[in-house]
Amino acid sequence: RLARTLRSDGHDLMMLTAHPSDDRWAIEVMRDAGIPDMNFIAGYANLDRALDVISSSDLVVGERLHSVVLAAAMGTPFVAVEYRPKVRDFAASIDAEAWCVRTDDVGGLRAIVTDRLASKADHQRNVDVLRARLAGHANRLAQSLAAANG
After folding, report:
1. Rounded to an integer, what is the distance from CA 58 to the centroid of its chain?
2. What is the pTM of this model?
3. DSSP alpha helices (H): ranges in the chain?
4. What is the Cα–Cα distance from 56 to 102, expressed in whole angstroms?
């Protein structure tokens, strides 16, 4: 339903899989949504294309942890579908737990997607803060190692 709604609202959709076992599921989603001609990329077979799609997207709705980690690293807003606790753990680690929805709360998915599409600037600020924090930790570690090695 979400795919149909987003398409009818004028959004371009792309189905991207991270593992061959996801291809059949993705094609079934496209058919069930009534969008069998949706663009489809087997990301595991073409990593460069997958990274291009993720970095240029307005939003990534991802079930696989790989997709939301890559989206976050590229500054692309995401909604993480929590199929396992590790997905929520990652989202929490970057102060993005509010962008995570459980698989049994599909009704909440639309609201989160709508909110995320409207708040891209907030996401980029969050990414910038976390990137600066990580760079600071890396610099301190490098200085400590340099001092220890004399």
Report:
1. 10
2. 0.74
3. 2-8, 23-32, 47-56, 65-74, 85-93, 106-118, 120-148
4. 26
Q: What is the pLDDT of residues 40-75, one digit of tens each?
A: 999 999 999 999 999 999 899 998 898 999 999 888
Token reading at 80: 């993480």
CB atoms within 10 A of CB 56: 10
Strand order, beta sheet including 100-102:
60-62, 78-82, 100-102
The secondary structure element, H or E, covering residue 60 is: strand 60-62
Decide: 43 and 49 in contact? Cβ < 8 Å.
Answer: yes
Residue partners of 56: CB distance under 8 A and separation at least 6 = none
